[in-house]
Amino acid sequence: MFCGVILWQFLAALLFARAFLASLTAHALVWSPVNTAFATGIALWAAFMIADEIFVEYNNERSHIMLFAAQLITLVGLNLLPA
């Protein structure tokens, strides 16, 4: 399970790098890779929150909620900023 989480996080990092490079090349946000990267990252934190509920690990849940919210707020902020 740990290896799966590491691979998931690595995939999210690669997708964020791809989104960064695509946006850098286009001189504007390229929404398809940006949304894919954020969806992968947000899904990871959502999976952690579900696992926290299943295994009753409420001590760890706060950090997972904060990371989930931070990525979600960042995505919303990017969408609301003028182009």
Notes on the structure:
- The protein has 83 residues and is mainly alpha-helical.
- It has one domain (2-80).
- Helix content is 87%, strand content 0%.
- The protein contains three helices and no strands.
- It has helices spanning 2-26, 31-54, 58-80.
- α1 packs antiparallel against α2 and α2 (31-54) runs antiparallel to α3 (58-80).
- The chain is flat and about 45 Å long.
- 10% of the residues are buried.
- The model has no long low-confidence stretch (mean pLDDT 93).
Query: Considering DSSP H and I runs of 4 or more, what fraction of the residues is helical?
Result: over 70%
Let me know the number of strands.
0
State the end-to-end distance: 40 Å
Shape: flat
Spatial extent as radius of gyration: 14 Å
Total domain count: 1
- Mean of pLDDT: 93
Sheet with most strands: none
Unreliable parts: none
**What is the count of DSSP helices, taking H or I runs of 4+ residues?**
3
SSE series: HHH
The percentage of residues in β strands lies in under 5%
Which structural class do you get from the secondary structure elements?
Answer: mainly alpha
Q: What oligomeric assembly is this protein in?
A: single chain
